[in-house]
């Protein structure tokens, strides 16, 4: 019976090619607009580290006071004094401090020009905390952090550029006239959004190429290439030491806490630290600290671009309009066949038979509209950079799941839109149709 209904639907669609084409185009354009914007939203709103996002936290300390805070929130990073204090206390299983750097790489080949390599100054726990994969070697340990050793981890892309992809662990590389010993080469790794560096606006930046010890970077006066927020006065200070011991915030802190008890204990530690600073005369306000996990941090930082939400809302609104137009077209098409329906009912067809026939016909329209929508979605992927920033546009891609979702949305939406026209068609009275004809 299903095959019979498909044959009836095919014959009906062929009888009015123009009306059928209008319905398919309406569904196709509506679905394509929705899927293109959904692809972007899916890329930027996912959990970048789902298996650990509830265990990684950003601890923040209010070093400014309520008169300088926005909506009562402390600064979104730490200054050097507080960052070092948290590291020395070591109240978490793993902990790290991060700030962006960019160093000039000097290739071994004298014929090649130096180039900038972006990356981070951090601690050895960074790699285990964030599950960084390695192609060769590994990260450094706490001994290298304490000794301020000039070691470095480079990315797979940089290793390919400098050493042709060969194992470079143990080799020396020169960056900004300083020599570093390579201890590891990361595999392809670039979580999006880059949750650990939203403070400096690098959530969707190009992948990092280098990682070096935080302690060594500070000792060598390697400046941050990220944000440096000095509060209302905007004064950084005249010297390196003045800046380090001032209240400018520029360091992103992260700790790993694997249980509720550890989270509670760390909150108490932060409050206790703030009270100590108040007693010492540095703060003159009550503790105002925060401890957010990855998901909470991304929500607070609004890591999902507002334009992606707006465009997706508009696109789905456009899909609704297309479905309303489809309802009208299906209603006109089905009601024109009232005499045919009356004859079928008089010959013994039930209302259920009418439902199955017309919904099967609608599903065929949806499938064709989905195929058109899939083609338009593919084309739309190439024009995303006209609407979104390039670093966001390139994150969206057409994969098997999006193909299946496009077809499913098209068929489901069309069948749902067909319910009212089908219901009207099923209410046709056979006697009236036979009498009038």
Automatic annotation (TrEMBL):
Pfam families: FtsX (PF02687), MacB_PCD (PF12704). The chain crosses the membrane at residues 17-41, 310-332, 358-382, 402-420. Coiled coil: none annotated. Residues 313-430 form the ABC3 transporter permease C-terminal domain. The keyword Transmembrane applies. Keywords: Cell membrane, Membrane, Transmembrane, Transmembrane helix. It is a multi-pass membrane protein. Residues 20-221 form the MacB-like periplasmic core domain. InterPro entries: ABC3_permease_C, MacB_PCD, Macrolide_Exporter_MacB. It is found in: Cell membrane. It comes from the Bacteria. PANTHER family: ABC-TYPE MACROLIDE FAMILY EXPORT SYSTEM PERMEASE COMPONENT 2 (PTHR30572:SF18), MEMBRANE COMPONENT OF TRANSPORTER-RELATED (PTHR30572). This is ABC transporter permease. The lineage of its organism: Bacteria, Pseudomonadati, Pseudomonadota, Gammaproteobacteria, Lysobacterales.
């Amino acid at each position: 019976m299903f095959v019979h209904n498909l044959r009836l639907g095919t014959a009906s669609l062929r009888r009015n090619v123009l009306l059928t084409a209008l319905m398919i185009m309406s569904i196709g354009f509506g679905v394509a607009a929705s899927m293109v914007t959904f692809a972007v939203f899916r890329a930027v709103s996912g959990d970048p580290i789902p298996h650990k996002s509830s265990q990684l936290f950003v601890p923040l300390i209010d070093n400014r006071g309520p008169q300088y805070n926005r909506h009562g929130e402390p600064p979104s990073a730490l200054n050097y004094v507080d960052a070092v204090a948290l590291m020395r206390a070591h109240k978490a299983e793993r902990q790290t401090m991060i700030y962006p750097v960019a160093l000039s790489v000097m290739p071994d080949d004298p014929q090649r020009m130096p180039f900038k390599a972006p990356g981070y100054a951090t601690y050895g726990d960074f790699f285990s905390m964030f599950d960084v994969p390695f192609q060769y070697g590994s990260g450094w340990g706490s001994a290298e952090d304490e000794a301020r050793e000039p070691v470095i981890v480079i990315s797979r892309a940089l290793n390919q550029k400098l050493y042709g992809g060969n194992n470079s662990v143990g080799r020396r590389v020169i960056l900004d006239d300083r020599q570093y010993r390579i201890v590891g080469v990361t595999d392809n790794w670039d979580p999006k959004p880059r949750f650990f560096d939203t403070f400096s606006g690098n959530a969707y930046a190009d992948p990092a190429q280098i990682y070096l010890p935080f302690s060594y970077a500070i000792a060598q006066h390697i400046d941050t290439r990220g944000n440096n927020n000095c509060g209302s006065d905007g004064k950084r200070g005249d010297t390196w030491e003045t800046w380090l011991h001032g209240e400018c915030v520029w360091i992103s802190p992260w700790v790993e806490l694997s249980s509720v008890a550890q989270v509670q204990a760390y909150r108490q530690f932060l409050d206790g630290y703030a009270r100590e600073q108040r007693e010492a005369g540095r703060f003159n306000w009550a503790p105002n600290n925060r401890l957010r996990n990855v998901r909470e941090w991304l929500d607070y930082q609004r890591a999902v671009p507002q334009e992606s939400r707006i465009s997706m809302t508009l696109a789905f609104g456009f899909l609704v309009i297309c479905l309303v137009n489809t309802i009208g077209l299906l209603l006109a098409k089905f009601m024109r066949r009232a005499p045919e329906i009356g004859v079928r009912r008089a010959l013994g067809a039930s209302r259920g038979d009418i439902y199955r026939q017309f919904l099967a016909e609608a599903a065929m329209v949806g499938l064709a509209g989905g195929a058109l929508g899939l083609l338009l979605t593919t084309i739309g992927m190439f024009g995303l950079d006209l609407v979104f920033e390039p670093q966001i546009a390139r994150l969206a891609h057409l994969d098997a799941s999006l193909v299946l979702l496009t077809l499913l949305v098209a068929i489901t939406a069309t069948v749902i839109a067909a319910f009212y026209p089908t219901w009207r068609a099923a209410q046709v009275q056979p006697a009236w149709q036979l009498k009038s004809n």
